[in-house]
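User: Run a structure prediction on this.
Assistant: Running it now.
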Amino acid sequence: MEFLFSEEQRELKKRVIELCEQRLKPIEESLGETNILSKEVVSFLAKAGLFKLLVTKEYGNSTEMPSLISVCLVREQLARFCPHAELIFVMQGLGSYPIIFAGSKEQKVKYCPWIASGEKIFTFALTEPHAGSDVSSIETSATLEGDHFMVTGQKIFISLAPDADIYMVMVKTEKEKGAKGISALIVEKGYQGFDPGKRLNLVSAHPIGAPVFENCKVPKSNLIGELNGGFRIALKNLDFFRSTVGAGAVGMAQAALDEAIHYARSRTQFGKKISEFQAIQFKLADMATELTAARALVYRAGYLHDHGAERITMESSMAKLYATEAAQRIIDQALQIHGGYGVMKGYRVERLYREIRSMRVYEGTSEIQHLVIANMLLKQ
């Protein structure tokens, strides 16, 4: 996909790969699988200037607004080499992007320096125990009382909770209006009535939790955009970052293909390398072809966004759907090539097999992406 990238983006990709291989990967290997946010990794990403890609030019980016291609490039390589760093990077973006495109000047002045420097870690709080794909059914409520909102409710499956500092929270401000009664609020750790909640244990270690709000007092000035305009903000946020989920899946799939090729070249059975068997060669060929197709869909969405497309809902859904499903297949085949070693703890493909599974679920399941794509087609 190099033909789509600017010279600056080609250099960015090269730099991130070097950072991962030479410096960040050893840090992650020493951490092991963890469900606790690593401040060391945060500091590394900040010093490398990667968080600046998530803000505007005024606060350190080289472009006026965040470039989707650049964010995808970084996420792909971090997912390939350093999954903990990949999670931190993308959540810093997902949790703050509403401020970038819909926040007030005062909000940008306050929060953008924190985003760019990594001084504060951001996350996005939408999902609830009884509201996942059906965003309109969220129950966390916010009532305006004077110059504050009083927020009550619970979220779940919130990445980087309870370690994150700033939470972009979707709340119901007019329950009877459904999706048209949702607003977006900035909630900071330490606000009265806010409990960042307990940690959750997933099949693959991941900092994630379930924040609770009990008459949480949030300044009225922390409202993003208009009152009851949160649903549109959430959709625009997801439109941008859904494509990056595909980029993360591509990175993991590339790691699996790399491992499979290396293993096939070194493993001997029946007197020859297994890479000489046509059955293995066919697997590798299919894996590489699907990976290339997935990467093309991801960067197609990024290219359209960065070149002024008003909306990339269908393109980002296609990228997320195909890339995550393809990555699942590619990683499964990589594990199959490894045979018994593929299911042993300590082997990269075993960890990838667990890590990839959640990507087909969060930010809209594969089933939801099918519906989004079909609805967009039928409206055209």
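Residues 298 and 319 are 5 Å apart (CA to CA).
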